[in-house]
Structures are given as C-alpha cells and as structure tokens.
Specification:
By secondary structure, the chain is mainly alpha-helical. It folds into three domains: 1-48; 66-154, no CATH class; 167-198, no CATH class. 61% of the residues lie in helices and 0% in strands. The protein has six helices and no strands. It has helices at 4-47, 66-82, 100-116, 124-146, 173-182, 193-209. The mean pLDDT is 84. It comes from Pseudonocardia broussonetiae.
Length: 210
Amino acid sequence: MSSPTTVDDEQLAALVRSVERNGRRVTALDALVRQLAGDLAEVAATLVPEAAGPDPVRSWLLSQDPEQAVTDLADLVGWTRRVFLRYPDAVLSACWLWHPEVIEELWWLRRAHAEAFDPKAGTWLRVGDWHDRQRPGVAKRVRAAIGTCELSLHRTGTAHARPAAPAPLADHAEPIAVAWTKDALAPRPEPTDEQLHEADAYMRQQHRRT
C-alpha cells in the first residue's frame, strides 16, 4: 500500500505533466493564431482597393466611353464658368461644344489647373506656369478656332459639318515606315506617279474648301 507521501508525489508529477502538456498546446495555439492573423491580413490586403491616385490622363478626341464622356464634359462646363471665363481674353462661341478640338484644349487646361492647385501635389511654380503660359496659350488658340464661328455653320452641308478628313496619302505609309527602319539616313523613297497624282488631287480639294 502506497504511503500518503508517495501518492502526493505522483499526483504532483501528474499535475506537472498536465501543465506542461497544456503549455505546449497553448504555445502551439498561439503560433497558429499568429499565422492565421497574418494570412487574414494578406487576404484583406487583396480585397481592399488601393488608395485613389490621380485621375488618369484622358483625351477627349479619343473618348470611347459615353458615360465617362458625359461626366467629363459636365465637369468641363462647370469649370469653364468657375475659372476659364473669368479671364477677359477667354471667349467661347455658342458652338464651342461642336468643336472637338476646342473641347480637347479646354480639357487639358482644366486638368492642368487641377494639378497645379492640388492640395498635396500642387506647387506655386505650376500655378505660375498655368497662369503665365498654359491658360493664355489655350485662350489664344480657342479664340482663333471659334472666334468667328456660329452654330448655324454646323448644319448639314456646311464646312464644319463635314467629318475630319483623313491624312493625305495615308495608304502609302507602309513603304515609308519600312524604308525608315532599314536606314534612317537614306533618302525617303522617291514619289511614284500615283502618289504625285494623289497629292495634286488633295491640294486641289484643299483649295476648293478654302
């Protein structure tokens, strides 16, 4: 028969072993929790969108998304009233929306204005460049493009109603490209009789338009 002391020692030893086992389990569980936390953080990083950066550069002339075009043009209309038309040399004819080249000019000027005055990325140097060079340049070109135009000149059959003309002699671009890549220092290919005829017809057409 075991003595009370022996029993107590055995119970104590069993208790120590149990505590050790539980300690190892807790340690393993703690490591597992840390691993799961790291895995969850990685998953969350893939689900949370990146912080919004600057607006992408977009050309009005290359617009293909109607919804985006509507949004951009509405923004531009508001900006012309708040900013562009505040300057005495800024002129917009009633038909300015019918001139895609004018919208393109105003659009880039509007975005340059936003960059110059951006609370984080803007600088006084950009602001000065916008006031001294960019805005006057666009105002001058817009005035030259539509200063004498009116909406009635955009009706069917008028000059402004015609679609943009293709680049002259565009069908002959391939041999020029091939010749250039073979030897950039060599003379350009000599014009053929066909090309000279097309060029002459193009010039006559241009004279008739003017």
